[in-house]
Structures are given as structure tokens and as C-alpha cells.
């Protein structure tokens, strides 16, 4: 029983420190899907923000978000139709 408690405590400590380790300067940028607005945002991990530069790797990373963005847009359209009285129910897409 004590070993399980120690394992859980170690897991919590490492999971709490994971965001701190990834926020160091010099690491690569990451992309984040903002489902509330159906947008993809670059999370810059470096000191100098490169808002206007996209390379081939960035485009390949962005391509992965296309199905999720389409599902998000379909959900927003369904909500608009529901507000207009055309549709009764809208379901959150499983892909998001």
C-alpha cells in the first residue's frame, strides 16, 4: 500500500514539473487549437517572436489541424442553425 502511495506521489511531482520543463527558451514552437474560436495559435517558446516566418515543418504541423478545424466549423454552423430553429440538437465532435 505504501509503494502505491509513493508511486502516485512521484507521478504527481513529475506531471506538475512537465510544463516547467517545456517552457525553456530555445525549444521549438508548438501549435495549439483554440476550440472556442476555431483557430490555431503558435505558442512561441523562444525569446524572439517570429510571427511572419513559416517553414515547411510548420506547414506540415498545421496540416494536422485541418480535420479538427473543419469539425469545429461544422459545430459552430450547427449551433447557428440551432439558434435559428433549424436543428434541435448539436453534438460536440469526438475529434476535438
What does this structure look like?
By secondary structure, the chain is mainly alpha-helical. It has a domain at 29-83. The chain is built from three helices and two strands; from the N terminus they run H-E-E-H-H. Strands 1-2 form a two-stranded antiparallel ribbon. The longest helix is centred in the N-terminal third of the chain and has 21 residues, at 2-22. It starts with a helix and ends in a 13-residue tail after the last helix.
Low-confidence stretches: 12-26
End-to-end distance, in Å?
A: 37 Å
Sequence of secondary-structure elements = HEEHH
Strand content: 5-15%
Q: Based on DSSP secondary structure assignment, what is the total number of beta strands?
A: 2
Structural class: mainly alpha
Rounded Rg: 20 Å
Number of helices: 3
Helix content: 40-55%
What number is the mean pLDDT?
A: 76
Shape: flat
Strand order of the largest sheet: 1-2
| Biggest β-sheet description | 2 strands, antiparallel
Amino acid at each position: 500500500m505504501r509503494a502505491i502511495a509513493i508511486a502516485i506521489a512521484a507521478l504527481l511531482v513529475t506531471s506538475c514539473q512537465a510544463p516547467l520543463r517545456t517552457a525553456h527558451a530555445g525549444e521549438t514552437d508548438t501549435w495549439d487549437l483554440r476550440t472556442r474560436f476555431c483557430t490555431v495559435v503558435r505558442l512561441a517558446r523562444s525569446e524572439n517572436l517570429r510571427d511572419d516566418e513559416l517553414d515547411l515543418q510548420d506547414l506540415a504541423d498545421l496540416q494536422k489541424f485541418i480535420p479538427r478545424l473543419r469539425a469545429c466549423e461544422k459545430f459552430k454552423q450547427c449551433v447557428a442553425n440551432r439558434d435559428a430553429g433549424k436543428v434541435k440538437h448539436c453534438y460536440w465532435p469526438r475529434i476535438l
